[in-house]
Amino acid sequence: MIDKIKKLLNEKADVERELIDTYECRIMGKIDTYNVTLNKHDFTYAKSVVNKGVGAGCVFPIDSRGIIALETQYRFNLRDLLVELPAGRMDEGEDFFACAKRELKEETGLVSDNMKEQCVYYIQPDFSNEELGAYLALDVKVKGDQELDSDESVNVLAMPFDVCEELINRNIINDERTIIGFGLAKVIDGIDFTKTTNKDQVISQILKRIEEDKVKLKEEEVDVSYTYVCEFGFARDHIVKTPKLINTRRECMYMKSGKMVIPVSKKGKIGLKVAYMPAVDKKMVELPVYEEFAKDSKF
After folding, report:
1. What domains sit in the chain, N to C, each tagged with a CATH number?
2. Is the pLDDT assigned to residue 298 strictly greater than 80?
3. What's this model's pTM, rounded to 2 decimal places?
C-alpha cells in the first residue's frame, strides 16, 4: 500500500499554472492568482493561493501531572474567542523547533527540556503554502511571566488531558492546530493520564472562564485599511481597538467554507485520495471533500 501511494505521488501531475495576478498583503505574504489547466481533462480554472513565504511553530505543552497549558485568544476574523495551543509565525532565521520553543515561553511563561517533533504539515495546501512544525513538550515548568507583544492579549488556560479531549468532543475546542496536536499526542505519542475524578466540576469552571475571557479579550473594529477580493473569498486589513485600549491592525483571510469527510469501511480502511494541490504545486494525500464523497461511489 505504501509503495502504491508513493507511486501515485511521484507520477507527474499533468497541470500547468499561469500567474495572472498578485496582491501584496501587509504581513501575510501575497495572494497569487493562477490559471490552472488540467491538461488531461482540457479544463482551466482560476485559483488564488496565499504565498506566505514563512512557516509557523506550534507546541503541545503538558506537565508531569497531565495538565495541558492551553490559551484563550480573541480571533478577530472569527469575532470569537478560541482555545488554542501556543503557536506563532517564525522569525527570520528561525527553524520550526526554535519558533515553537520561543512561542511556548513568550505566550505561557513555560519551558521544557524534553521537546520532540510530532510532524511538519501544510495547514491548508489547497489555499496556502504555509507549513507548521508541531512539537510535543513534556514535563513543562514555569520559567517566568508571559512576554507578549503590546497588541497581544493571551490568557493561559490549564486543563487535565481528558478534559481537553472532552472539550474537543463537544466542539468547544475547535481550533485545527489544537485538535491535530492533541490527536498526535494521544494516538502517535501514546500520551494518556488517569481520568479526572471531579471532571464535571472542572469543565464547568473552564466553561465559565472561557465566557469571562470572551468579554475581557474582545476587540472592536475602528476602521478598515484595505479589502482585496479574490477567488477563495477576500483578504481584509482591520484596524481594531484591543482590550489594552490601543489601536492595532489585524489582517484577516476570509475563505469559502467546505466540508471534509472521513470515509471508513467495515474492515477499517480509510478512503483517501491523491490530488494536485495548487498552492504547493505538487500532489498530496488527502481526505475527500463532501461533494466528491457524495458523487463518487469509490469512497
Report:
1. 2-51+219-295 (no CATH), 56-216 (3.90.79.10)
2. no
3. 0.92
